Amino acid sequence: MKNPGIPDRLHQLLPGVSRVYRNYDIQQKKWLTDHPQIRVRCGPGCGYCCNMSVRVNLLEAIMIRENAGERGVAKAVKAGKRILDFARGYHGSEAGYFYAFRLMLKRCSFLARGDRCLIHPFRPLSCREILSGLPGRYCGAEAMENSTAIALRRQRYRLPAGIFRGSPFVFPLIEAGHSFEKQLDARLTDELGLSIRGEMNFLLRLLDQDEFARLLGKGIPGEICAFFEQNQYPRVLVEVT
Ligand code: SF4
After folding, report:
1. Ligand 1 atom nearest residue 127's Cα
2. Which atom of ligand 1 is nearest to the CA of 52?
3. Is 150 left (phi over 0), alpha (psi -120 to 50) or beta?
4. How many Å lie between the centroid of ligand 1 and the Cα of residue 217?
5. Across 123-127, 144-148, 187-191, least confident range
6. 55: Cβ below 6 Å to ligand 1?
7. Residue 65: which domain range?
8. Total-model pTM
9. Does residue 186 fall inside a structural domain?
């Protein structure tokens, strides 16, 4: 679903985003081949981690907006409003926010019936980076809260401590993803003079707003920064660098 207000020069960067995804996927596959002792348990129909705060670059949000279909985007835009209200009303620690977020969201806007990801070919880097070495039920927010259960499972499944670091997720793959995220940030900065990274639903909501699309069209970094300063969006939702 294309918003005519979003400038073409940003749309023209999307093939580059696909290339970054492809390169990350190749590196991930190679890493897993080089580490045959790591058994990944994620698969189609498993959506236990799909209630996290998914942070994306603005270009990734534009990619999703173009490919998710009208209903999917409308659902995310609606969730973006709920998430903004939640973030504004939250006054605890940042770590606590991300745990509370999972309990509040319950399901990603793009998690369809049968726990399939509606945007799987276009899912952002944050989703590609998360692979689990434990059965899905240990990836849910409630299981994460019960770290004793995860520790016991880690022993039972003999998960190497350095790679899983107290969680079900494979950390080297998350860390490898950071350099690919930086590539996306750099592409946006080259085009716009700044980079915008934030929660997926929230950025989709922003892209739906004519005022924001118009600012992107003008492409004046000072005006874009002023927009974010005026609105005082919480840092857990969006960062402009
Ligand atoms: S975008 Fe897809 S993979 Fe990512 S959290 Fe949502 S449903 Fe899960």
Report:
1. 4
2. 5
3. alpha
4. 29
5. 144-148
6. no
7. 8-33+54-127+174-240
8. 0.95
9. yes
